[in-house]
Amino acid sequence: MSAGSSAVEAMARKSEGALSAAKDTLADAPAVMKSAAENPKQATNDFLHTPFMRGALPFINGGLAGMTATTVIQPIDMIKVRLQLAGEGVKTGPKPTPITVTREILASGKALDLYTGLSAGLLRQAVYTTARLGFFDTFMNSLTARSKEKGTTVGFKERAGAGLAAGGLAAMVGNPADLALIRMQSDGLKPKEARANYRSVIDALLRISKTEGVAALWSGAYPTVVRAMALNFGQLAFFSEAKNQLKGSSLSPRTQTLTASAIAGFFASFFSLPFDFVKTRLQKQTRAPDGSLPYKGMFDCFRKVAKDEGLLRFYRGFSTYYVRIAPHAMVTLIVADYLGFLTK
After folding, report:
1. Model-level pTM?
2. Structural domain total, the chain
3. What distance in Å separates the CA atoms of residue 236 and residue 171, rounded to the nearest whole number?
């Protein structure tokens, strides 16, 4: 018998085997569907425990948690962005407050103007928070498994490293949606004739790509990544550490989660606000008629703002930022924690 005919016979046997397996699966299908109909809870549980879903759930839960939090917090984020862009390049002059900015927005339009850029915010969370919480959970699961093998425990250093890495990776992926959000929120500050009047986040992304090039979607990516790493370091590392420290306390599990998320929100705000400020300035800027930009990059922006507006300008609106970050962190972490419990 030739080698060619042997190969053909082997392939035929494999095909017969695959066909037989397919027939068996089809024969079992009615029984599987009947079992699922009779016991949907068990069927759902079995599906959630497939290898694919175990890997995907941290990302799915993270995205849903982030989008829920953004829907709640969007008006505060809008006010925070307007505060950061007010008085650009001027050291003295009237200092806007969250109340005056809110009044100005309401006086110039409708209450729904506070939700300008919500579509971009939701897209950003669908990409950024999905990635950062998913990566963080994946990294932490890997670190926990490794520490169990070695008979050690995961420490703050490992949690911080996981938070920094997850934040940096997610920020690069989510930068275009973040840029679109800033452009949509800052558009109302321009004279009417100069406004882009973006209809949605997709419209913003397409028009920015067409007029400024695809690379423009990653404008401010460096401070965005640094900000995300600082925010994740404050939020996820401190949340995980605080929960670990509160485990032996008399507080209920729900109170422990709430307390840990409040602590995480403060540290996330403190570490990330200067980078958030610079990111907002860089993503808002557009080229002048001569092709020049107000800032050449992150360090140039830090230098010019410090010189022209003072060092404290980087922390302008800290209370608003904290009111935006802390509840967002709390809602995100609590929802993610709850979804994690439901899909355990």
Report:
1. 0.57
2. 1
3. 15
